[in-house]
Amino acid sequence: MSDNTVYRASTTAPVNIAVIKYWGKRDAALNLPTNSSLSVTLSQKSLKTHTTASCSASYTGADSLLLNDEPEDIQSNKRTQACLQLLKRFRHDIEVKNPSAPKLSTMPLKLVSINNFPTAAGLASSAAGFAALVRAIANLYELPHTPTQLSLVARQGSGSACRSLMGGYVAWRAGTARDGSDSIAEEIAPVSHWPNLKALILVVSADKKGVASTAGMQTTVETSTLFKTRAESIVPQRMEEMEAAIHAKDFAKFAEITMRDSNSFHATCLDSWPPIHYLNDVSRAAMNAVETCNRKAGKLIAAYTFDAGPNAVIYYEEENEKLVAGVFRYVLQQVKGWEGEYGAQIPSNEQGGLEA
Ligand code: ADP
Ligand code: DP6
Ligand code: CO
User: Fold this and answer.
1) What span, in angstroms and rounded, lies between the C-alpha atoms of 183 and 188?
2) How do residues 55-95 score in pLDDT, each as one tens digit?
3) Among 213, 239, 283, which is best to mutate for testing ligand 2, by the most ligand atoms less than 8 A from CB?
4) Where exactly are the transmembrane stretches of this chain (predicted)?
5) Is the CB–ligand 1 distance for residue 120 below 6 Å?
């Protein structure tokens, strides 16, 4: 008699937005970065990925992923395959130790995932997406692994995903081991450490970006003359300064490093050949608006950062919300091409970091 039991687990995962950017791989196969990075995990109340993983002996065919209602080719995606193989191996180890455990590792997997925000638009969909994929399968397989252990798996799907398995303030240590065993994420402070830090997400464009992150960073590593200096001489010190600023809740320092690092990353993009342009006129208007906020306040009260796309994330402290929101509303009303905002995210203690 065939067993039609369907085993299923669902989860959600948050987006994280780096304040020290990951850009460049030292090993493309293992997805190892050239530099460490640091991010803030955002609220799940507005931006999140929801993923369901199921498996059954009655399923036929290969493992599959339905992303935003469209089939995604995961068979030829080496990075997704690496995640699935690792997770299946972990499950297989459990089945060997416990012969009565159902043999989930041998069953085809069906993954169904929805991002409730634009995919591949520079809002970290690969981060929330692979964090959700790994966690959903880890739940399905009842794996005992810690978030840090799972970050090793998620990293192989998309580098930034390793940071979305934790809340609050998360460092991804580049590591030095050739096998990537020390290239992991660690929470340096919980969300409760800095409860009044907020993030405003400005959706300049929901369109798919012209140059995907993986391809863009490869071009930068191969062609940018600025890149080596950034990775080797600038980021290591910035990581230390940023960790200190976060621990001290020193917003002015946090803001300066965040903006300088975003600008440094986009400078290496422009310095690549062919040049990569992620920012547009609306992005630059958002940068000007932040500068206006800071000029009005007479100190740094707002910080912009941009991932690989034109969309802006503005960090600020809650007590300055009126000023920041007022300036943005005024400035962006005048800008053509402005689409909308995801609103301010405030912290909470749920799994993610900053909460809406
Ligand atoms: P982003 O700036 O949105 O992270 P990337 O170029 O880094 O853009 O990655 C986008 C890719 O990440 C998508 O084309 C898709 O392959 C993958 N991805 C996005 N969301 C998910 C998801 N929910 N589950 C699995 N993979 C996803
Ligand atoms: C600019 O993690 O999307 O957002 O590892 O190739 O999937 P892959 O790249 P990805 O790159 C993110 C780049 C960034 C900076 C960051 O999140 O640190
Ligand atoms: Co990405």
Assistant:
1) 15
2) 999 999 999 999 999 999 999 999 999 999 999 999 999 99
3) 213
4) none
5) yes
Q: Which contacts of 88-94 are long-range, i.e. CB under 8 A and separated by 24 or more positions?
A: 88/141, 90/138, 90/141, 90/143, 90/145, 91/141, 91/143, 94/141, 94/142, 94/143
Answer whether 21 contacts ligand 2 (Cβ < 6 A).
Answer: yes
For residue 351 the two structure tokens come to 């799994």
Beta bridge partners, 290, equal: none
Residue 49 phi/psi, 5-degree rounding, is -110, 135
Chain segment 6-46, per-residue pLDDT in tens: 999 999 999 999 999 999 999 999 999 999 999 999 988 87
What's the one-letter identity of residue 222?
E
For 85, what's the count of Cα atoms within 13 Å in the CB-facing half-sphere?
10
126 lines ligand 1 (CB under 6 A): yes
- φ/ψ (deg, to 5) at 174: -55, -40
Backbone angles phi, psi at 89, to 5 degrees: -65, -40
Rounded to the nearest 5°, which phi and psi values hold at 287?
Answer: -65, -40
ipTM value greater than 0.90: yes
